[in-house]
Amino acid sequence: MIPELAEWNDGQGIAPSDWIWIEGRADHALGFCSLFWPGIVLFEDYVLREPLNEARLRGWESQGRTRQQIETAMNAFLLEDVFPNDPTERQLKETQTDQLAKTMAAMLQAKLAYDFPERRFLAFTLAGEDFGVSFHQI
Questions:
Q1: I need a labelling partner for 99 at 20 to 30 A (CA). Which of 48, 80, 81, 86 fits?
Q2: Terminal-to-terminal C-alpha distance of the chain
Q3: Per-residue model confidence as pLDDT tens digits over 32-60
Q4: Is-contact 8 14, C-beta < 8 A?
């Protein structure tokens, strides 16, 4: 999934953890933490990704949407254009972002269970035009 790994060690390749050790940057790692372990708040009976946009929330409520629909929409993190400068070939990039979405959903599920043990959640990938991840309470 990471073609560059095969170029290391005279073509024998290296593990992702070794590659990160060599090429990684702390500021990038901290930035990725905000994607993989986002801030989440409890607001009224909603559990929402930070930052809270109360006006948007009230707009969804005024349209008669359910709590699950509102949480799904407000908690969506779309991946379609998240790496605009990545030169990776399109098919490989789609495979990589699909795996990223699945991993992010699993991480969200773990974070939600950790932060809100008394509540139940479903974290999931989004397909189609709104490709990414989201979650809501169940």
A1: 48
A2: 33
A3: 898 889 999 999 999 999 999 999 999 99
A4: yes
